[in-house]
Amino acid sequence: MQKSQSQKPSKGNTIPQAFNDLVRSLLSLLVKLYQDFPALVVIIIFVLFISVYLLLRAINSDYIYSLSVTFLFMFLSLGLYFKEKSFLSAIVAFSLGIFTAFTVTWNGSTFSIFVFSFFPLSVILLFFEFIRPAANVEEKLTRAANFYISDFATNKKDLQEVVDIITKHKYDKGGLLSTDKVHDAMLFFAHHKVPKSRMILLITKLSYLYPVTKVDAESLLLLLNNVNYVSQTEEDLTTNVKALEHCFFKARSTPSSLVKLLNEALPIAIENEIDFVLFTNTILTYLARGYAQTSIIEHLSRKFTKKIP
Question: Which end of the chain has fewer CB atoms < 10 Å from its terminal CB, N or C?
Fold first, then answer.
């Protein structure tokens, strides 16, 4: 289990990985073009060098200021693109920024004013950007402590211990669950009065399942909470979360469809006190036979619902 958590999934949604993927794709494209059209590539490179030469010949001090502003807006637009994943937003932001910037005559004075206002503003915004997540997680901890198992002070201490353990585990074992999602999970399980030891196990499992399956965290939290309800003891819970992990690898279904099926089916197991491993093995059998999801629910209901004498 520990080794499984150290295997990091694709980071295609992170900015560095997206940039690396873009560079690799561009290099592959250039190699392919050179293999298929070597003469064209040579001509393009020649034209590029000529353009750079003419550009350098044309540069004066005012041009350097304008060029610096242009590159700054390019950088900001790229940042917006990687955050929003929207080509249109990045282009519009860049265009508006450039059109607005070039209504000003850029020289030493105007550029100095811009720099001495831009960088202090950036520092202030970054300060608030770092403060906001801390305030957000503190608010979630306080909300959770207000209605957890014991008094406020004890609740806050216990829940903070949960977060600290999960955070340490994340750094030690390479977990990929963000701090914000750890607190979301803590708040969710606190609402359901899940004991501290169980909560640690469930959030640890979430830190593995969420990046591997790419399923919405709220759906996974609901699923793990259902697994908790069907587990009579902590030993049962440990066994059941391992069985749940194996389901994702064995099931003939996409992770999102499997999570939806399990969330709809598990109330049957909870109400009728059915062994989780037996229950999920039955689901896997139905999936292997090609049963539709609604049909599987009906079969499970008939098979496991206790008969009233």
Answer: C
